[in-house]
Amino acid sequence: MEKEPEQPLPESPEKGERIAKVMARAGLCSRREAERWIAEGRVRVDGKVLSTPAVTVTDDSNVQVDGKPLPSKQPMRLWRYHKPPGLVTSHNDPEGRPTVFDRLPKNIGRVISIGRLDLNSEGLLLLTNDGELARRLELPETGWTRRYRVRAHGTVVEAKLQELENGISVSGIAYGSIKAVLDKQQGANAWLTMSLQEGRNREIRKVLEHLGLTVNRLIRVAYGPFQLGNLTRGQTAEVTGKVLREQLSGTGGGAPRPQSKKTGAGAKPTKGWAKKKPVKTTGTGIRKRKTLKLKPGVTAGKKP
User: Fold this and answer.
1) 60, 66, 102, 118: which is the annotated catalytic residue?
2) Are residues 172 and 234 in the same domain?
3) Predicted confidence band at 110 (pLDDT cuts at 50, 70, 90)?
4) What residue numbers bound the domain in which 170 lies?
5) Gap between the Cα atoms of 262 and 124, Å rounded
6) Does any domain span residue 292?
7) Cα separation of 221 and 228, whole Å?
8) Residues of 94-122 as b/e, b for ≥16 C-beta within 10 angstroms?
9) How many domains does the structure of the chain reveal?
């Protein structure tokens, strides 16, 4: 009996990566933007214009975007930025409004935001030069909680806030669990602390409007382990490489660590935004822990 010819083994992923992923890692754009650029005919590989992102490239491939060679991969970097209200989280706004990226220091270079804050929202916005990192940290699967301080006009019914933990559907859109706590009812306004993991477009505003409340100030104070801290409006602060590696420790160095209950949706709310003291953080914007058994690079805070 003749021996059947051996079938070739599937190509190892180590021999190359998808073009959109490579472009994102070079800091040019997000993976989604890369796919759009490819569809627009802006990307060439070894002299051939691509029409699909289903292409694998290697270190030996000659990749050009808009006729320019793909920049060499830079070390992964991350910044905390205090976004002021009135700025659009976009590189180009068709209405000509000022953008976050117009106001950043020039020495940062080209960066991408991890998630967005809408025009009138303010607070912590994470920025990175790595499109793959941005995509990874935006996914709810990371388990990283976004925490907000919210001022809303109207009278809060606390029982309705508690129901949000089971999720809610608004105008046919199903939102996941939201931890909402009333901090203070002051006249016609109320201050709340809200924590969620999805962060869909204008989610907090839409959910509170559904409850009869109108948001008139929204401040993101934390994104996963990273805190707004004492950053002033418009200020940036880079997260050190050591701390970034620790927070992303896991399989392949890319999976964020599970978040502590102290800093997640079950975090104890603080009272009165205007009067509350700043959250104690390390110089990197990581919330200090109340234990002496620390991983390297994270500083212990004082006992309560």
Assistant:
1) 118
2) no
3) confident
4) 146-223
5) 19
6) no
7) 5
8) eeeeeebbeebeeeeeebbbbbbbbeebb
9) 3
Query: In terms of residues, how long is the chain?
Result: 304
Q: How far apart are CA 135 and CA 264, in angstroms?
A: 20
pLDDT in tens, 256-283: 444 444 444 444 444 443 344 444 555 5
Strands (E), the chain: 17-18, 43-45, 48-49, 56-57, 63-65, 68-69, 78-83, 112-114, 122-128, 146-153, 168-170, 173-175, 179-186, 189-196, 214-223, 226-227, 236-239
**Average pLDDT for 86-95:** 91
User: In the annotation, is 118 catalytic?
Assistant: yes
What's the CA gap between 234 and 191, in Å, rounded?
A: 23
With H, G, I as helix, E, B as strand and everything else as coil, classify residue 22.
helix
Lowest mean pLDDT: which of 10-19, 45-54, 80-89, 206-215?
10-19
pLDDT of residue 253: 41
- The verdict on 131 and 241 lying in the same domain is yes
